[in-house]
Amino acid sequence: MHWRSALNNQNNPLLSVDGVTLQYRTKEHLVTATYRVSFDILRSDRFVLLGPSGCGKSTLLKAVGGYIKPVEGTIRLNGTDVRKPGPDRMLVFQEFDQLLPWKTVRQNVVFALTASGRMSGREADEKAMHYIDKVNLTKFADSFPHTLSGGMKQRVAIARGMAMEPDILLMDEPFAALDALTRVKMQEELLRLWDDTKFTLLFVTHSIPEAVKVGNRILLLSAHPGQVRAEMNSDGTDPVDASGHKLSERIEEMLFREQQTKVEELEHA
């Protein structure tokens, strides 16, 4: 099986975010979540949005998903403006209740395929089992969500998203609610799946170690409102640069220095 993105020219960006400003309204205020953020994602990238809480990472992911319209800038997938949600982008959230509790693992994945009109009957069941096997849950195909651990539920959600074979898989802090050991295991599972299918991933996290491990490209966003601070490459091993600093240390220093500067500005305001 091949993802549709693999059929396109590998040299052109799959996703282009150009000067995107995002806002949302609370009861009291109009909040600017991101300000003129730009980046490109190539096919088979594991692209990570990293930054402190409140920097607009999740809001930006929802905009890529088509759920929020930019007030400024454009988002294009395969050269076409993103205006609404579609099966070419699948979202995986951190919540464990994203599965239908009255359906088994197999039925949850099949339902996504049939409800989208992508396929029906035996074809949908075969594809569902193919991806359930890829996340090592074949033995639990006929189990209901309430019998599964948190990590297993997330693997079902990933299988469901991958079964749709979208152009890009969007993951919003999918492992944040897991215990530390399960979180590391799920990161390794995700990388194993990527090695197998080379899908394109846009991954949101506020964890520096997770970003370094999961991503091959990391976009660092500033504190609210989110703006691009830097883009870095990672090989998953937290490499040491010529000055003897690890990638994670450089990222941490940038985040800490920015936050400290903001505190000092407020103190002297």
TrEMBL record:
PROSITE patterns: ABC_TRANSPORTER_1, ABC_TRANSPORTER_2. Coiled coil: none annotated. InterPro entries: AAA+_ATPase (IPR003593), ABC_transporter-like_ATP-bd (IPR003439), ABC_transporter-like_CS (IPR017871), ABC_transporter_ATP-bind (IPR050166), P-loop_NTPase (IPR027417). Residues 15-250 form the ABC transporter domain. Keywords: ATP-binding, Nucleotide-binding, Transport. GO terms for molecular function: ATP binding; ATP hydrolysis activity. CDD domains: ABC_NrtD_SsuB_transporters (cd03293). Belongs to the ABC transporter superfamily. PANTHER family: ABC TRANSPORTER ATP-BINDING PROTEIN (PTHR42788:SF10), TAURINE IMPORT ATP-BINDING PROTEIN-RELATED (PTHR42788). This is ABC transporter. It comes from Devosia chinhatensis. The lineage of its organism: Bacteria, Pseudomonadati, Pseudomonadota, Alphaproteobacteria, Hyphomicrobiales.
